[in-house]
Every structure is written in structure tokens, then in C-alpha cells.
Amino acid sequence: MEKYLVDSHIHVTMLPYEGLQAMAEGGIKKVITCSIVLAAQHAESYFDYFRLITGFYRKNAASLGIQLYSAIGVHPAGIPHDWTRVVNALPDFLKTDGVVGLGEVGMNQGSQLEQDVLKAQLEIARDHRVPIIVHIPFENRLPITDLTLSIAGQVGIPPHLLVIDHANLDIIEQINQFGAIPAITVRSRNVTPEVLSDNIDRFAHGMLNSDFSNLFPNDPTGVIKAFHRLKNLGIDQEIIDNLTRKRAESVFQI
Ligand SMILES: [Zn+2]
């Protein structure tokens, strides 16, 4: 079977067409787009967004040979005042074709509001047995990781459904100990292909993504570059396959 790659976390509405093209040309055939509505004020902003990524953008990606799957949820960078309406609607949106889980959720500061929104969404993931992508921010990484895992423990979400994203050397042991799945973002501000290959044993249980957005420097071909570096270095093929395809396929059942 022909080898292909999976990018387990992007933000498709921020991706230029050329970025999607570069992904397709580099061998990516499946992509998971996460929800984010920056500065959202109203639940409806999320409802329209969910329809946009599961409809319009899914068709557009298919025209380039990419199967686009969606993760839905309230992102900490845009918590509407009526966020409970979004959370209550998630089970219905989970039935939409191509929706494979919840995300991107998580905390930036760890405020009570952020904790409440995260907890409510972890409960939905637990009750509906779907994976949930929880991000760890650039700042306050250790306390936010502690708090995230403690809330996840209270909720009692099965660890194999918990994807902790933007894992790096600072938190990888915590994630592995909890039994959650580390997601590894390949870009200059997170894990470079060099740091990945230098620490391959510690990252081997994870899955790669580019987390492409337009908020700071990003590279839609991060997963592709990492794949070629690992291959050129002669890293074990099974580890490469898991990081760049198989783990995402099994966690999200895609
Ligand atoms: Zn993201």
C-alpha cells in the first residue's frame, strides 16, 4: 500500500490554498482540522464555523485528494458568553459526517472560566467516547499541564481518548505517565525536526501535526519535513509510521 502521511491538527480556515497544495504534494492524504473562533462572542459563531469546516472546506480539500476531518469545540482564544449553548450542541454536531472528536480545547491562563469550559468538554468526550485534543499554551506550560491532567483525572476520561497537544521535552514525561497521547507540533516555536529526531525515544508514543494558523510563523509542511528527516536518519520505520500516520488513524478512527 502506498505510504501517505496524516497531519493531526491544523486550522483549515487560516490555511492558504497553496498550503493545502503543498501538503497534498508532500504526501499528506488525511488532515484533522481543529475548531477556533478567535474572540468569539456568540455561540452562533461556533455553529457557523462547524458547518464551514465540515462542509465547504471538506469538499475543497477533497478536490486536492485530501480527506479533511474535523474536531469541534470551544477554543480558549474565543469563549463566547453563552458557551454552554455550544457545549450542549456538541453531541449533535458529533453526528456530522467527518467529525472525529473534540478540539481544540484547553486553557491559556487557567482561569475559573477556562477550567469550567474545559471540564464540560472533557465530560462530553468521556460520555460520547470520542477523542479530545487539549492544547498546552506557550506560557505557564507546567502549571497548565498539571491543572489540565488533574481536571482530566477528576472527569475520569479514559487516557486513550485524551490527546495533549503541543507536547515538548518539558511536559512529555507527564503526558506519558498519565497515559494520554502526546501530539507534537512541528515548527520553530515548538518541536523542530531536529529536536524530534534527537529525542525520538521520548516522542515515539506521539503523533505529529503542523497546527497551521496565521497567528505566528507556521509551516504547513512541518509533518512532511519531519518525516523525511526521520527517514534519512534511518529511524525505525514502525516509529515513523506511528508518528506520521498510524497513531492518528487509530485514535481518531480515520
Ligand atoms: Zn491549534
Descriptive overview:
One of its GO terms (molecular function) is hydrolase activity, acting on ester bonds. This is TatD DNase family protein. It comes from Desulforamulus putei DSM 12395. Helix 4 links the parallel strand 3 (67-72) and strand 4 (99-106). Helix 2 packs parallel to helix 3 and helix 5 packs across helix 6 (141-155). This protein has an 8-stranded parallel beta sheet with strand order 1-2-3-4-5-6-7-8. It is built from 11 helices and 8 strands. The chain has a single domain, classed as TIM Barrel (Alpha-Beta Barrel), CATH 3.20.20.140. The mean pLDDT is 97. It has 254 residues and is α/β, with parallel strands linked by helices. The site of zinc ion (ZN) has 6 residues, from loops.
